[in-house]
Amino acid sequence: MGRRPIYMKSSHNGLKFLLLVALIVCGGYYFAKPSSFSWLSFSGDELVKNPLLKEKAFDADVKEIVSPRYGIKAYLLEDDTNPIISLSFLFKNAGYASDNKGEEGIALMTAALLGEGAGDYSSQEFKEILENKAIGIGFAADRDDFSGTLLTTKQNRQKAYELLHLALSSPRFEQEDVERVRQQMLESLKFQAEQPDNVLQLAFLQELYGDHPYARNPLGRAESIKNITQEKLKTFVKDNLRQNNLIVGIAGDISVVEAKLMLDDVFGSLPKSGKTNFIRDVEPEFDGRVKEIPLQSGQNIVMKAALGVNRKHEDFYPLFIANYIIGGAGLNSKLSQEIREKNGLTYGVYSYLGLSEKSPLLLAYYSATADKYPQAEALFEKVWTDFGKDGISEKELQKAKKYLISSYNLRFASIQNIADILAAMQKYDLGLDFLKRRNSYIEEIKLEDVNKAAKKYYNNHVVSVAVGRF
Hints:
This protein is of the alpha+beta class. The protein contains 17 helices and eleven strands. It is 42% helix and 15% strand.
């Protein structure tokens, strides 16, 4: 599933959403870094010893359901442990890369405004009902998709369904709310330009993608944001939030019959079809180039990209394991051991798989003080390329497998996570039995599979962009 389950969002609060986007400028899950480096001290060895997780298999049945009236499909996992229901849904190819030219930022603005009143409910009334009835409704736009969540108690489910239906089909887009969110986005753009991490990430996108829509600033352009009107917002909703690009995951205390009816009630009034801008595939030129951007900052920060694979590619699981070993295992990763633990050149270094639909990548990030940067850069390149040439041992493979299999059960700690995974299963066409079979996919990978993938993908064909003092 990559670094994390997709589409985990915050509440409906527009300001909170926009500040988050400003801090994690590249949006969604694609370039998002961990919120802190606290995970680096996490012990995988202790985790795999946990008797509650070791060898545990996920045996619940996921059902595909179809609503009776409109034929809307969803994946459902029933769980009556707690009286809670969670939905995770997305509209494919409706993310910010698909914004019309001259309307860059409209997907994010729409996501921030859909919780600002709908139907007969003003913004204040809408939020008060959500708070009083403990209902969570949230929206987000990443590079590829426009997504949403609903979390409700079983007792308040009917009101929750009503509010979500109204938010999607009858948003108010009151001028006062539009202007407030517009100003928040413009302020976020100003804040963005002052942050070294943001400067790096935007330069990184530009270096990788040039004039392709993936190079866009996820916050949009100030000129475009200033010109977004209520009518343009309504047109965006009509064109992009529709039944034929909808994916839904449902988890919790809800029966098959009720879930089918809920799909019609919530999503049935959406248009059957609409208009979405086509985004072509893009493969950056991986030629080993390095771009250094002078900037007065406390540390030099670096992002790197190499060719990756999509979720259905035959090399995905070998590469998934390889990435865990080289840069995904916290303090135990090869990069962290060499650059941080043995040489003290960085506070944190990690790598991960980027699964954007049009350009899957291997990605890495680290920071170092200016005086240590040349040594850290040389050592990163050595560890990376040596990994491709030398591969891993059987002992390393088995240790990685134990962690990746045992830790998988942690993803089912909340109903929200499960709904997210159900949506991801459909997005990546993983099949109804994925939850039961995922660990076997890991177990089946052989040493030669990982080493073959390492040789193919870990080489000096890496694009590197750094910001700091050189």
